[in-house]
Amino acid sequence: MVIHAGTLLDGRGHLLHNTEITIQNGKILSVGRTGKKPDYDLGRLTVMPGWIDVHDHIVWHFGPNGRIEDKSETPEQATLAIAGNAYTTLMAGFTTIQSVGSPEDKDLRSAIANGVIPGPRIITSLEPIEDPKLTPEQIRETVRKLKADGADLVKIFASKSIRLGGGQTLSDEQLEAACGEAKAQGLRTLVHAYRTAVRAAANAGCTEVEHGTFATQEDLDAMAQHGTFFDPQVGLVIHNYLDNKARYIGVGSYTEDGFAKMQDVLPVIAEMFKRALATRNLKIVFGTDAVAGAHGHNAEEFIYRVQAGQNPMDAMIAAQSRAAESLNMQSEIGSIAPGMQADIIATDGDPVKDITAVRRVVFVMKGGKVYKNPAR
Fold first, then answer.
1. What CATH number corresponds to the domain at position 292?
2. 217-226 vs 256-277: helix axis angle to the nearest 10?
3. Strand pairing of 94-99 and 121-124?
4. What gap in Å lies between CA 240 and CA 290, rounded to an integer?
5. Distance of CA 132 to the CA centre of its chain
6. CA distance 357 to 69
7. Do both 14 and 100 map to the same domain?
8. Tens digits of per-residue pLDDT, 114-162?
9. Range list of H helices, the chain
10. Helix H or strand E segment including 210
C-alpha cells in the first residue's frame, strides 16, 4: 500500500514534500519516492503520525439523562456510550491514548485490540492509587496487584483536585514507595500533582507528572533535572467543564465553589505553561485529561497550547515522538519511519502554519487499516 503525501510531518520535527509512504503488514516499509501509483493520494493534505493523548478518561460519559451521574443508566447504555467515545476519539486523529483511572478500560483495551470495535490503541492504569491512609508497604503491594491484573502503568493521586485547592495528599515516602515499586515491576508511573507534590513526584523518580498547576520554577527545574515527563493541561479540560457545568454541577466536588476555582485558575495555568516552555530540558508531552463532553475534541488542546505560546511544530512533536517516548513506545509509534506502526493521519491544512487545521482530520489509518478517507 502506498500513500502519496504532499506535505509530511514525520513526528520528530522534520518536514518533507511530495514523498510516499509504503506500508506492508500494518507497518511502514519505507518513506520516499517509489514511482508507483499511490493507493491513497493525499497530495493536498498534511500527513503525519497519529496523535497520542497521554491522559484520557475514555469511559467517562453523560448518561441518558444528559448528566455525568445517571443512576438509571443500564450497563448496555454505558457500554455503547464508551464505544462511541472510542470511535469519535479515533476519528479525531488520536490513534493511541493512555486512559488512567478506570478498571473498565481493560475490556475496552481488549475489544479494540481484537478488532471488535474501532478505537485508539488503549494503554490503561486500571484502578488508581489515591488513599493517603495506605502504608508504604500497602502501596507496594497495590502496585504488584495492579501489574498482576494487567495494568500498563500506575496512576497515582498525590494531590487533591484543583476544585479542592490541590494540596499534597501523599507523603514523599508514599510516593517513593509507589514509584519505586512500579519501577521494580517494570511499570511506568503517572502522578496527578499540584503545588509541592510536583517536586515530590520528580524527586521520587516517577515517570510523568500531570497538571502541575501552581508549580514554581524550582518544581519545573526538578522535573527537568530528573527527566520527568510533564503533561500540563492548558485549556481543554477546564473549558469543557465550564461549558458543561449543568451536566456536572452537584456531583462530588463539582460545586459552585469548585467551578469558580477552575475559572480562576485558567490564567495561573497559562502563566505556568509559559515558564514550563522556557525551562531548559523539560520534556513536555501532550495530554488532555479528556472527560465526558471532551471526547473527539481532544485536538482543541493543541489550539490552547499554541495560543499560550507553544511552537506549533513542538505541539505536534509533544503528541507524537515525545509522547511515544514517555510511553516507552518510541520504536513502535509516534513517528513516520521504516519499522513503525502505520498510524497515519492527514489534516486539511497545515497545523504548523494554522493550528486550527487540527480540527480538520480527514484521513485516519491505524496499524495499516484505514478508518477515515476523504475520497469516500
1. 3.20.20.140
2. 60
3. parallel
4. 9
5. 26
6. 34
7. no
8. 999 999 999 999 999 999 999 999 999 999 999 999 999 999 999 999 9
9. 75-91, 105-113, 136-149, 172-184, 196-203, 217-226, 236-243, 245-248, 256-277, 300-307, 312-318, 321-326
10. strand 208-211
If DSSP codes are grouped into helix, strand and coil, which group holds residue 134?
coil
What domain count does the chain have? 2
In whole angstroms, give the CA distance from residue 77 to residue 63. 8
Do residues 276 and 347 both lie within one domain? no
In a shared domain, residues 110 and 60: yes
**Spatial distance between the Cα atoms of 208 and 52, rounded to a whole number of angstroms:** 15
**Other C-beta atoms within 10 Å of 161: how many?**
18
Residues 32 and 170 grouped into a single domain: no
What's this model's pTM, rounded to 2 decimal places?
Answer: 0.97
List all residues 6 or more positions away from 117 whose beta carbon is below 8 Å from its beta carbon: 83, 86, 87, 111
**211 lies in the same domain as 275:** yes
Helix, strand, coil fractions of the chain, as percent rounded to 5:
35, 25, 40
* pLDDT (tens digit per residue) in 57-68: 999 999 999 999
250-273 b/e with 16+ CB inside 10 Å = b? Answer: eeeebeeebbebbeebbeebbebb
Nearest to 219 by CA among 242, 236, 195, 243: 195
Residues 86 and 180 both lie in one domain: yes
Task: Identify the domain containing residue 97 by its residue range.
Answer: 51-326
